[in-house]
## 1
Amino acid sequence: MSKKELVKEKIGKSAMQCFAKFGLDKTTLDDIAQAVGLNKASLYYYYKNKEDIFIEVALKEGEDFINSLQEATLLKEGIENRTAFYLESRFNYYKNVLNMNRVSVDTLNKILPRFFELYNALMKREKIFLTQLLEKAAKEEKLMMTDPENTASVLINLTDALKHSVEQQAILKGETEIDYTQSLQDIKFLVSLIFTGIRK
């Protein structure tokens, strides 16, 4: 790592600790600068604002998480168990990424466009991984499937849609806590429903 990369990593870790403690909205660049041992002006050399820090660190952590999750998924027995475990685990991870002590709607609107632009690259990798799982099961004649790639894409898109739906409902109702229980149950039902139809 270069000196700049080491400093950015230190800033990122300190910032995420501040976000977890104060929430993304209430954390200031002064808080982050103090936590990392720099002055506020020095932070501007590395980042324009706290949202940029959050996005970069969240995506890096997301990439590390997905790598670990994919390894853990391969240890599960059976294609249905692997798929359900993968979808539920990624759901639980992503629901916490943008919930740093209740991020406000204004902050969400500010960070979401860039966040999703970067997140799309990660999602492509996720769809490739799930496609490969399904293709392997189909080749082993455990599934009747003609389009594993589309099936993988639909599974991930639908689980993300379930998460976004419950979040939007909470925002519209002005709720500060989001209950994801039903969404997780719906994911289990969705996987069970699909695999009932394609299992040999």
## 2
Amino acid sequence: MASDGRRRISLGDFRHEALSETSSTNSECLARARAGDGGNLWVTAERQTGGRGRRGRLWVSERGNLYASLLLIDPAPMERLGSLPLAIAVAVHQAIRRVLPLGAEPLEVKWPNDILIGRKKTCGILVEGEGLPDGRYALIVGIGINISVMPDNPLYPVTCLRQQGSAASPEELFAHLFAATAEVLEIWDEGRGIGEITALWRAIACGIGEKITVNLPDRSISGQFAGINDNGLLMLDTGAGRIMPIAAGDVFFG
């Protein structure tokens, strides 16, 4: 524990298991949690046979990209977990920044945690949680980064690091992700550092002040992206002075 009350996190607090192939690194982490793993475990795979994105969408998972999941056990009180996706997005942004050449297109975060290069998606993050029978809570952060392979029929414009001039391998990129995540989780401080995290997120955010459409499970709402509040909710200005906070949805620009 540091003098400021923040629990120090080091690279030595985390473990890493590299697999050649698995159905899903998220599923692998969840299985480890159910079997009693203590957390702070990274699982990577060269290929996934059943990778998935948000809302159960298929995540193309051929060799050449980075597929990584982090298992955390009781990472924060439930009321402070909502800011964790923002923290992870900051860490992934930092990792990708370290392998992009100077001439690459702008690297930004689309709310809440898609990573864009030149407004094209290069990374998706899926956060899943489950209460365990022994009373612990398992939270799994799945990260898929396009390095050399992209989906054929994407919902959004996509790119990969190769198209942006990066020669980084999945192993090199993961080394940066491993380090950046430890650094950012220390700042996040079990949710107590949300002010610092939201400030870092806003500095790399895409589209604040622009017109957006947010697709919710039952409807679509358009307005101006007014940023995020201190709890990480998207603030949508729908006009007439009304600001609507949104906790989850798919954002489209223009």
## 3
Amino acid sequence: MQTNITYSSFVAIGDSFTEGMSDELPDGTYRGWADLLAGRLAARDPGFRYANLAVRGKLIGQIVEEQTGPAAAMGADLVTLVGGLNDVLRPKCDVGRVCELLGEAAERLAPTCKRLVLMRSPGRRGPVFERFLPRIEQLFSFIDELGARHDATVVDVYASEPVGDPRMWAEDRLHLNAEGHRRVAEAVWQALGYEPEEDWNAPLPPAVPVGWLSRRTSDVRFARQHLGPWIGRRLTGRSSGDGRPPKRAELLPYEG
């Protein structure tokens, strides 16, 4: 385990996962694994700077077009690139093209930083997730190849059963809750070579059985509050990130 690593700057790019949904703070903003990681890194370097260009709903083509150029220009020590899952979870998707675009992003970013981090990102276990498994595994196999090509760190959170457990996910069933984001932050922290603070992949206690009525009530609430609006956006070609600026558009000193 390496203990003398220092990163003085960090840029995160991606979609809602990196933006931090749904690790909601009291003021209604989102924190998430990238912010948590930035906080830990800042504690080791008083001059630490952090930018988070992620925007919810972004597809890999939009990430490449809108985020990789500004991120590369910042010249940060550490860059995390997580994207493509929004694409492969759509009804129609050219996975080969998604991989090409992800490769373009890595090609642009790797020469500009000391350490590029890629991720086999997590998914909530269930029938919807299982339906898209062939696409997801094709994408993640390419991410492994990309990591080897660019000597990048690949963090495998996808393989974690505890992080895929529904209890780690918010009510919308698309985004991690606070505990899920905390575990991802620890996983990246350890992958970067820092001493573990906990076992991010520790098993969860046995789940308490939920009655039929409670499950159906939860399903109805999910469909009304989350699934319906999501389908509406797909049908009209809109995105939850339309018109939304990056979370932290400039590489500035971190303030927790």
## 4
Amino acid sequence: MSLRLRDPGQNNGVAPEFTVDPALLDAISPSGDRGGIVVGSGLKGEPLTISALRSMPTRIVLVGGLFLARQVALRAMAVGAWVVIATGRPAAWQVLPRAAGTQPDGRPSPLVQIRRLSPVELPRPSEDAPLLVVTDGGPTPQDLFPPRSPWQTTVYVLPYLHPQATTIANAADIVLMQRLPVGQAELAARIWRLPPQMMRQLTTLKDDQVVALGANLWRPLRLVTTQKEQQLLGPVRRGD
């Protein structure tokens, strides 16, 4: 089963439902649909959603700036996922624990955990509490937390494409790519066997544009952000 984009005009299956604290929904105002994660809008403004939290191990590769990675993590958290971030730049991810808030006793919400880039024990994912693991380890990340169980999704954040990331890139169920320089677009064409017109399109994307790439999938889309997300993340942008 491949990970698919869904839009309201197509019968592409129903994403699972999860529960989440209403206060968190109010804090983030996510644009999600029944457990799916809205990644952007199509040419006609229709929301495009991926069922990223599902009953099988899932890999997602993000090639681009930190804005995109943090937005995906926020939206997963907002539809009820545990989020574990393994990163060498923890300060850049503090926006997620702030968005999650605190428990009644004043302690940080356990919904978000920021970890070092080293193996740790993960929360056990389930249908009621799926797990999103973000590996923010640079262009050649170690596969510290490969998805091995249902309801675990691992997101690999690549600031740029590197030949040594080919294995992880090829194993992804879906790839979200922002604008690439010519050399990296050529590398993308070699990794995914893209024709010249697709390779050129990767070099001309605007700051708020992304291409979703997967099995039988090539879908340009525009990143959108809610007012609450803008307060947390700032304006949509290509990099940080």
